[in-house]
Specification:
Blueprint: H1 6-17, H2 41-47, H3 55-69
Length: 81
Amino acid sequence: FPYTTLFRSVQMIEGFLKTKANITFGPMHVADVQTTNSDVRAIKKDVNFTPKISMEKGLKLFIAWYLENETWVTKLSKPKQ
């Protein structure tokens, strides 16, 4: 199954944004995990779902959406407590 690493994802984002990320390595946060895995075989079997776009295309589409809508979050109001 195709997979990507965090560093490859950062490289793709750098390419789409035409900028270099400022990466700082530090100690792992308590919530960090060493490895994550995703396996779509079960959902393919259970509901006949197959992803239709690649990680690269999905990131590209998301970044394009974000850049068009980045001020959207500033229009949200705080939830009432």
